[in-house]
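SEQUENCE-TO-STRUCTURE ENTRY
===========================
Question of interest: how does this chain fold, as expressed in backbone structure tokens?
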Amino acid sequence: MGARPSGIGEVVAALVRHLPVLAPEYEFTLLRNPVRDQPLSDAANVREVVVRSPANGPVTMLHLPLAVDLAGIDLFHAPANILPGGLKMPAITTVHDVMWLTHPHWCNPSPWGRIERHFYGHGIRRALSASALVTTVSAASRAAILGIAPAAADRVIVTPSGVAADFRLVPRDAGALAAIGVPAGRRYCLIVGQGAPYKNHEGALRAFALAFAAVPDIDLVLVRRRGDTGPALERLARRLGMVERVHFLRPVDRPALVQLYAGAAALLHPSFVEGFGNPLAEAMACGCPVVTSDCSAMPEVTGGAALLADPCDPGAIAAALKRVVDDPALAADLRARGLARAAELDWRAFAAANLSLYDRVLAGAA
């Protein structure tokens, strides 16, 4: 759990919040990122150890006991795709997706990405072969995992992600939106997610231009992190004649993100692949209609509460987006279905499902 928001960070936060309460008979040791200067939990059955080596760094990969004393640990849960080296106890690894093995160019196309490809590829393959159990956050990710490691079928378990309670219906606050860079009085579609190629932000921008080039009173707002694709998107917006209507926001905090969802005409999320796709759940929980991809985990996560389109077809994405924006009855129906679907995505249930797997592994190791 570092300084920047992430889907994996949300998963870890849910485990930290719920597991000590669900399992008072267990003692939990949390390996804490040094940027977190406050305890993660005040539960009596939790102890915390600050580990200076990065969670996804070379020491962790090669031999985690060099960085932290793991004596007395009966089960290790690795929540961030890779299984650390040097573990002597049984381990469960959460593999959110296998893009680094199947589509590494979608993760990081820079020269550094070639190094990351080998790093994550090694850690994920170790997880799939050596973990007592592998959890993943969607049936789509499980299918992708089994496409690589079919022999692991009886060890790969789906524990669907949830959505945090602070993503909820709130009144639209025009002043708060203006303070974070949304032009006053303008309708807008919203994109949320990191700047990696698999998010398909270029396709989203092209689709927005196809849908609304002749509709001057609606904008596109992007909240993005990581990646060096921002300048390329700005150049594309200029070529498409949309540069004045596309707004790249600075990083925002959770209340601001909730406001962005609350005020948007639609969330546009046409990823090529997702392990889960937290913005989908967050948007639905805030009553924001969703347009997303018809592949990977997106149909599963939205559960019939979104319009789906081929992410490789900007025209299809544009048509779906225009339908939502132009049809208030459809938008209202998507809001209602999205709220109902988001209510089914429960972090406590996610933690309880993981706890049942802890019990299973520990019973087998006894």
In short: The radius of gyration is 21 Å. The longest strand covers residues 187-194. Residues 111-130 form the longest helix (20 residues). The chain has two domains: 7-162+347-365, 174-343.
